[in-house]
Design a protein that fits this description.
single chain, alpha+beta, two-stranded antiparallel sheet, 20 strands, 16% strand
């Protein structure tokens, strides 16, 4: 109590309210842990420390309700549609002969340039200066501003090369199919890509361990745990390697280069588990100590029992100040943490029910003994369910008595609802919405892909999806394809085929029908190909037609029908195919085959005899040319 003092007089006591601030115990927050440096991992093996701790980034992703749908959209749309193999040169295209001839010409130019360069090197070795030092390469080798003149390969050589390419294409196709079907133990290559993309978008890094077969070719791809992999600085000594460089569309050339490699270490709790070398490093590296050796014999002699290190491919979202990658959303870490804290505040509010729905006020009296307990038990257990309807609670209160023991006026009991004081909805919803927008902006994703927009019409939705495909998903696929083609396929000695990631296929029946009709009129597809595409529109299997005209583009087919001679052949072909179908159905039903009906030139056979090719396909007949 304090007393109000006026002059020399002391008046009545005045109540004083004291405020006490209760603080939560101090501790490192997630954001502090994220930016903190962990000295133990870097000190164990001399590795570089990542800018942001991968394990903390994974925890943030686990607890965020906004990161997960954004990253899932990237994983599905970039790496979820599979892949295909495209030929470097389409040998059935109209310009196939021209492209093969040009490739042969470029190969001949490369051979002539190599001969000229070799002659210059020999001349430099012979014409040494008096001091005995060889002439510097810059004075003996000059760039080929004008390529050597070579003659175009003759047609016979081009045709022989095309036939060899066909055989090699079949062999390489089989090898590619076998590799990508079985390169991932316990899963598919698509599943490996999806998990790799998940690691890459969460932490900014992803790793593949590459295992080779006894022939030295890559045979297995294994995802490495991103949270435990660390990088070493680049080695101080460069290593001469031979890399494959394309000379033409169909040929590669081994080019010597000097590269600085780094090594990788897997460590947990300060203990080194294994060492790895960078993919393409020709050196023998110890998996136990990470020390490079000349060959496997030297490794066995100096480190008995140690195995050679396998190779590692590092995927990273580039960072200008670190060899590690950095996730796209790292600039919005505060938004991720803010939304999480907001969810926890709302959860605590609803759990604790900070403001009760009802207050019981007693004035001018007091409750009898145990009345408070009776009221609490009544509301906890006896007013729940349908059987509690019309139940009544009786409250007894006593009047307050004065100093002489005389009872005062009757006490007053009032129930006061507190619904107006209660929070009717979650707190800070606009703040949470803005955080979600900022995180999606980090990935440049439209709201429709994360399920957050419910007001879009079809035109706006298609425009948003087209933007995401052109600006986000397809560039990421092309970057991944470039890595596979330049690094993995070259190690597999594949030169004719290129790896190509698939994008989303059209699932709109109306749009697909328009595409099929347009391709058919333009002659880009045949009737049988149109039937196969139409199966996806109607979700019905349309069997292929067995007649030859069904494998001819529609414009060519219509041109044949305009010629009486070719039209007659086509009608005979159709009748033979129809009779064959009817005979097959009759035989399956146990009936006798139908007799062929006589035509204008005699009986038409219903057997599968060879039919003359259509006029206009291959070498046209004189009648077709005249018409």
């Amino acid at each position: 109590m304090a007393r109000r003092i006026r002059g020399d007089l002391e008046t009545e006591p005045v109540p004083v309210i004291k405020a006490h601030v209760v603080k939560a115990p101090a501790g490192a927050s997630l954001i502090e842990q994220l930016f903190a440096r962990r000295e133990t991992d870097g000190a164990v093996a001399g590795t570089l420390e990542p800018p942001y701790k991968p394990d903390i980034m994974i925890r943030l992703w686990e607890m965020s309700s906004t990161l997960q749908p954004n990253i899932s959209a990237l994983v599905t749309n970039i790496d979820g549609f599979g892949h295909r193999f495209e030929p470097a040169v389409d040998l059935v295209a109209p310009d196939a002969v021209t492209r093969v001839r040009e490739s042969l010409r470029l190969e001949l130019i490369a051979v002539e340039e190599a001969k000229i360069e070799e002659a210059k090197v020999r001349a430099a070795q012979i014409d040494r200066p008096k001091n005995g030092k060889p002439t510097s390469p810059s004075s003996t080798s000059t760039p080929f501003l004008d390529p050597p003149e070579v003659e175009d390969p003759p047609d016979a050589e081009v045709l022989v090369r095309i036939e060899k390419l066909r055989r090699r294409a079949r062999v390489e196709w089989s090898r590619l199919q076998s590799f990508f079907e079985f390169c991932c133990p316990g899963g598919s290559f698509v599943a490996l890509r999806r998990r790799t993309r998940l690691d890459l978008e969460i932490t900014g890094n992803a790793f593949w361990e590459v295992l080779r077969n006894p022939e030295g070719l890559p045979s297995r791809l294994v995802r490495a745990p991103v949270a435990s992999i660390r990088l070493t600085p680049l080695d101080e000594v460069s290593v001469e390697v031979k890399e494959l460089v394309r000379v033409s569309d169909l040929a590669w050339e081994w080019v010597p280069q000097h590269r600085f490699f780094r090594r990788f270490v897997q460590a947990e709790s300060g203990s080194v588990i294994a060492w790895f070398k960078e993919f393409g490093d020709p050196r023998t590296v110890s998996a136990r100590t990470g020390r490079p050796y000349k060959d496997a014999d030297e490794l066995t002699r100096l480190e008995p029992g140690a195995k050679p290190a396998t190779e590692m491919i590092h995927f990273a979202i580039p960072h200008p100040d670190s060899p590690y990658g950095v996730p796209r959303w790292v600039g919005n870490v505060t938004a991720v943490l803010g939304s999480r804290e907001l969810d926890e505040v709302n959860l605590d509010y609803f759990r604790s029910n900070s403001v009760p729905p009802l207050a019981l006020l007693v004035s001018g009296g007091t409750f009898k003994k145990n009345v408070v307990g009776t009221i609490t038990d009544f509301f906890d257990s006896k007013v729940k369910g349908r059987g509690s309807t019309h139940k009544v609670v009786i409250l007894e209160a006593e009047s307050q008595r004065n100093a002489g023991g005389i009872a005062g006026p009757a006490p007053k009991i009032t129930f006061v609802p507190l619904r107006d004081a209660q929070q009717q909805d979650a707190l800070f919803q606009q703040y949470d919405e803005r955080n979600a927008d900022k995180i999606s902006m980090s990935f440049r994703l439209p709201r429709i892909l994360t399920g957050r927009d419910r007001t879009l019409n079809r035109a706006v939705a298609e425009a948003a999806l087209t933007y995401a495909e052109d600006q986000v998903f397809n560039p990421e696929r092309e970057e991944f394809d470039e890595l596979i083609n330049r690094r993995l396929l070259s190690e597999l000695k594949i030169s004719f085929w290129c790896f190509k990631s698939k994008g989303p296929a059209t699932r709109d029946p109306y749009a697909l029908a328009i595409v099929i009709a347009g391709f058919g009129k333009a002659g880009a597809i045949t009737p049988n190909e149109a039937r196969r595409l139409a199966s996806g529109v109607f979700n019905i299997d349309f069997p292929s037609l067995r007649d030859r005209w069904a494998d001819v583009p529609l414009p060519v087919l219509l041109a044949q029908l305009n010629n009486p001679e070719t039209a007659k052949k086509l009608l005979e072909d159709v009748d033979r195919g129809f009779a064959g179908l009817v005979d097959g159905a009759s035989e399956e039903a146990g009936e006798a085959p139908l007799e062929p009906k006589p035509g204008p030139d005699g009986p038409r056979r219903s057997t599968g005899m060879a039919v003359e090719p259509l006029r206009g396909v291959g070498e046209p007949a004189e009648e077709a040319q005249s018409s």
